Structures are given as C-alpha cells and as structure tokens.
Amino acid sequence: MSNPSQQPPLKVAAWCIPRSLSSVLTQSITSQGNAEVFFEYYATAAHGGPEKIFKTPGNLPNDVREPLYSFQYVKDQLEADYPSREIVFVKDMAYAVDGRYDKLPQGYIHTFLTRHPGRVFPSLVRLAASFPPMLGEVKYHEISPSPGQSYKEQWDLFQYVTNELKQPAIVIDADDLIANPASIMKQYCDKIGFKFTDDLLTWEPDLVTKHKWNIAQTQLMANQFIGHYRRAFGSTSFEGGDSLHEINYNNENDDVKASIEYCLPFYEKLLKNKINP
After folding, report:
1. How do residues 55-64 score in pLDDT, each as one tens digit?
2. Which tens digit of pLDDT belongs to each residue from 194-216?
3. Cβ atoms 192, 111 nearer than 8 A
4. Least confident stretch, 70-84, 87-101, 122-136, 256-270
5. Nearest Cα to 161, choosing from 12, 8, 9, 10?
6. Which of 2, 157, 141, 154 is nearest to 83 (CA)?
7. Which residues contact 17 (CB under 8 A, 6 or more apart)?
8. Do 50 and 64 touch, CB atoms closer than 8 A?
9. What does the angle CA 131 – CA 134 – CA 137 come to, to the nearest 5 degrees?
10. What is the CB neighbour count within 10 angstroms for residue 197?
11. Are the CB atoms for 201 and 270 separated by under 8 Å?
C-alpha cells in the first residue's frame, strides 16, 4: 500500500513496560496496512545483540543470538526513509534504551504506555511459570530484568523526552485503553497527528505476519516456543480480560509485593500526565 499524500511518514515511538498491552496497541495503530512497524528492536539489542545487557532467562546459553542488532543498527533502521508509508510505528521497552539516549532515533514523537504494577507483576509471574520445564526455573524478574524493574526506566525516559527534548506528554494507561478504547485512541491519534477512524478499534488477527512487521527471528521463535505474544497477536479488539477486575495482590509472595511497591511511585507520577477518558 502506498502513501497517497507523498508526505514523509509520521514517525511514532511507544515506550512500554512488559505486559502492558503494547502489542495490542500496535495491532490497532497498524491495522490499516500502510505502516512500517519495528517491534522491540531495542529490546532485541539489549537481550540478544552484540552489546547485550541482560542474561538469557533460565538455563539457555547466554550468547549473542542476534549479531546484527547493535544499538546503532537499530537507530539507523528507525531513521531510514520509508516514503511509501503513512506511519512508522516503533513499539519497544523503555528499559532497553536506559543510559543510551544517544541511540534514540531522530524525528520521532515519543509516547508512553503504562499499566498498574499490581497487574504487571502477577502477569509476569504467570508468564514465568508457563516457560517449558526444559528451560529450568525462570523467575519473573528474569523476564523484566532491568534494575528499575521497567517503571523507573520508563519514568526516566519520560523525563528526558519532556524536559530535554521538549516534547509534550503523551501517556496511555492500559486500563483506560481497555475500558474506553474509542475515547483513548481518538485522543492519542489527535496528539500524534494520525487520523482516527472506528476501524482502529477492531482488526484482523496476526498482523505481524500479514503486514510483515520488522521483528527479530528470535522473537518469533520465542513466541512459538513460549507463547508470550500469542494472545496479543491473535487479538481482534481491545478486549477486557483481567484489566477490568479489581487490583488485589495480597496473595502474591513477598518478592512480588516488594516489586509492586517499589514501582508504584514511578507509575503514579507518570499517571499524572495520562490521557483521560
């Protein structure tokens, strides 16, 4: 699909935390087909590239699995020209660029998607428990291994974007997105300069394949093996799930509770800037 306006494409980055429905947001924004999608390129660099930062979970070899994915390579790919596209959409983890703001791509509108840690960490625990036994015991903090447990890094990046880059705050809370998708998506689109239509509220499943997203092979292989994106990639709308249930983490273990309590202040500060339904 071509870009009929022949204007340079809109370039938008959505900086997320794990388990925040960011893959579902990506399905929505790119559902009309005229989009170039970069799916967790920085996270791939941080977890499997030649400058990898984080240890591979479980008992898998802690080796370089994506030798092409240096941070400079990612930046170059995102800054390339895509004249036939209406939008270039980057979905990535905020923690993956922590301390590497010089590798942020130029020319992008930076936005943020967050979620209550009382939902995120129990979800990470469930995900860790679903890893195949052959990988050994996987702890939830191995999946999101950054020192600030993703939330501090997201807050730090938000401060950099608003204070240093002088960009306006554009923040979505995942619960609002699920409870009021039309209102939140319309406001989000207005803020980034992207045309909103009701078509963004429903889509076909598996757009990662149909629209040929840019995604590392190790990401696709891991999803086949573990299934951590299976529900999101198979989604067709902003369905409710557990995000509409009351948040209660009293039954979680002490480590999970400590993670939630540590992250709450960063989440609450970011939430003061959110788009309201």
Report:
1. 877 777 777 7
2. 999 999 999 987 766 677 889 98
3. yes
4. 122-136
5. 12
6. 2
7. 93, 94, 95, 113, 114, 115, 120, 144, 150, 151, 154
8. yes
9. 60
10. 11
11. no
